[in-house]
Amino acid sequence: MLESVRGIAEFKDSNGGIISISVTNQSDSLAAGVANAYLDAFISYYRDEQVEDLKRELAFTDSRLAEIEAEVRSMEDSLFAQELEFVDRRTAELQGEMESAEDALYNFKRQHQILPDDSIELEKLSRRLSRLQLLVDQRTALHTNLLSQREQIRLKHAHLKLPGVGAVQEFVVAAAIAQ
């Protein structure tokens, strides 16, 4: 059949991307059938090419997404380590300050068990005792707060390690919604 239609079809490609198909034959139905067959074959070919292009783009996107997810996981791990290191260092510093304040308070109380009758001296000692107690209370509160923050960071990090949870998944969802 191909031999019978060869030479009756003419194709013209314009610069605008339009392809014209002209089929000349004594039989109008044969000419229309040949033109439609060429058109169907072209549409099928074009659709297959588009599918292959999309598959290549999807493979590239999947590959890039895997790279980005790995980078984000690495950044999250690094950030977690830095946050934990800071909190641990600051907790140790505050622990030392708190112990120093407690020692100062203890020494103050021990040194001034017998107070002079002088009311001015008693008032000074009382104010100093209050300041030292306030310092101990502040350091204790800071220490407790840092321990709480440390635990929150650990929980956040553990949450990010769960499958299907985290910044990468939120990014992917946001990107999908944006499109």
Describe it:
It is a single chain. This protein is mainly alpha-helical and 179 residues long. The protein has one domain. The protein is built from four helices and two strands, in the order αββααα. Strands 1-2 form a two-stranded antiparallel sheet. β1 and β2 form a beta hairpin. α2 packs antiparallel against α3. It is rod-shaped.
Summarize this entry quickly.
The chain is mainly α and 179 residues long. The chain is 79% helix and 6% strand.
Instruction: Kindly name the structural category.
Output: mainly alpha
Let me know the average pLDDT: 77
- How far apart are the first and last residues' alpha carbons, in Å? 48 Å
Beta-strand percentage?
Answer: 5-15%
How many E-type strands?
Answer: 2
Helix content: over 70%
Shape: rod-shaped
Order of helices and strands: HEEHHH
Gyration radius, in Å: 40 Å
Strand order of the largest sheet: 1-2
